[in-house]
């Protein structure tokens, strides 16, 4: 059967009004157009839906039998239409974000607050996690998007470059290198360096070429977390490598950041999402707001 919603709505209007004339007015169409629609529906169903006489119009027995199903179908379609409209207009929805812990504490809370003001009916949740877990969380469907530094991309995901930042050295304001404005990579070899274990440092070694990165391969201290490294610097145990997005943590530890040059090495940060899952309007709108309003350049001021 090639039955359309238009035909079902026309049938229900005629039943409710008890008149083709009144039903046509309700539907804002001509009476002849309404008659054609009802005729098409009766042909499709191979049933007569109305008993017509010169005095009155009544719904036939067949029409009364299918009436509950027609009402149910139209109600369900109205519900579906409202659901789709709500999703499109962001009347409700969810946005789940997996983000590296350091990033989670800087720009993202400000942007979530802004988004909540714009779309208060949408629920935004943040999963702050280790960098290495971001792609797994997005791939499993636990998060809609992930934000973090460059890592080997899982085949089920896509990535979009959102910003890049150059490496800096975090040090005490009283340290001589804090007075010079910048420092060369080769000059770091003479300092007591504190580095992070794992990919953060491994990728840097590849950028510098292993032959000239011995002081990074064998630092004075190696720790797992940036918070630990910065606390050690604060207490005079050395200097550490960091990126400008960590400026709040650097400032809280009463430290300063010194740009590193010769060469200037950048670390790329990406927005990760699933190739196989369509983004809901609320998620896409959050991405738009994030890209428009993030200001990691503040860290460089």
Automatic annotation (TrEMBL):
Pfam families: HTH_1, LysR_substrate. InterPro entries: HTH-type_LysR_regulators, LysR_HTH_N, LysR_subst-bd, WH-like_DNA-bd_sf, WH_DNA-bd_sf. Belongs to the LysR transcriptional regulatory family. One of its GO terms (cellular component) is cytosol. This is LysR family transcriptional regulator. Residues 3-60 form the HTH lysR-type domain. The keyword Transcription regulation applies. Keywords: DNA-binding, Transcription, Transcription regulation. It comes from the Bacteria. One of its GO terms (molecular function) is DNA binding.
């Amino acid at each position: 059967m090639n039955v359309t919603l238009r035909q079902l709505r026309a049938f229900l209007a005629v039943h409710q009004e008890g008149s083709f004339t009144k039903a046509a007015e309700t539907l804002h169409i001509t009476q002849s157009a309404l008659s054609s629609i009802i005729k098409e529906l009766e042909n499709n169903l191979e049933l007569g839906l109305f008993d017509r006489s010169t005095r009155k119009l009544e719904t036939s027995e067949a029409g009364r039998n299918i009436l509950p199903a027609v009402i149910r179908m139209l109600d369900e379609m109205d519900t579906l239409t409202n659901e789709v409209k709500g999703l499109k207009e962001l009347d409700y929805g969810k946005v789940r974000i997996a983000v590296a812990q350091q990033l989670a504490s800087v720009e993202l809370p400000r942007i979530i607050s802004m988004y909540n003001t714009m779309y208060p009916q949408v629920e935004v949740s943040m999963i702050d996690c280790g960098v290495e877990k971001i792609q797994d969380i997005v791939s499993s469907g636990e998060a809609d998007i992930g934000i973090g530094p460059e890592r080997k991309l899982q085949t089920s995901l896509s990535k979009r470059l959102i910003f890049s930042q150059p490496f800096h050295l975090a040090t005490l304001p009283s340290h001589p290198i804090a007075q010079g404005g910048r420092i060369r990579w080769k000059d770091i070899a003479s300092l007591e360096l504190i580095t992070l274990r794992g990919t953060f440092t491994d990728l840097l070694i590849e950028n510098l070429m292993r032959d000239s990165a011995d002081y990074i391969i064998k630092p004075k201290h190696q720790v797992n977390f940036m918070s630990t490294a910065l606390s050690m610097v604060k207490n005079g145990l050395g200097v550490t490598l960091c990126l400008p997005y960590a400026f709040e943590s650097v400032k809280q530890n009463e430290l300063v950041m010194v740009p590193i040059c010769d060469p200037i090495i950048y670390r790329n940060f990406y927005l990760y999402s699933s190739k196989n899952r369509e983004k809901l309007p609320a998620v896409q709108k959050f991405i738009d707001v994030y890209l428009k309003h993030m200001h990691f350049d503040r860290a460089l001021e």
